[in-house]
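Board notes (copied after class):
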Amino acid sequence: FHARFFAASAEVASGEVKGSGELEDLDWYPISQALKLPVIDVTEFVLHEISRRHKGEIRSRVPLYSYRNNKPVVRT
């Protein structure tokens, strides 16, 4: 499946996060707290990427995280 990730600055994020019932425990989390949660590798990768961008560390290309032969591959 294809996953999409959305991020917002804490200064502008507000309100209650609502879903369709497919996902549980939807809420706003600081990246530092989210990284302590049990998440799959692609989610951890994206959280680290968002953290880098927030600190001004922007890559020249957007990385693509995928799997080949059941192993993670990052292409830039």
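Comment from the instructor: The chain has one domain: 1-76. Residues 25 and 46 are 19 Å apart (CA to CA).
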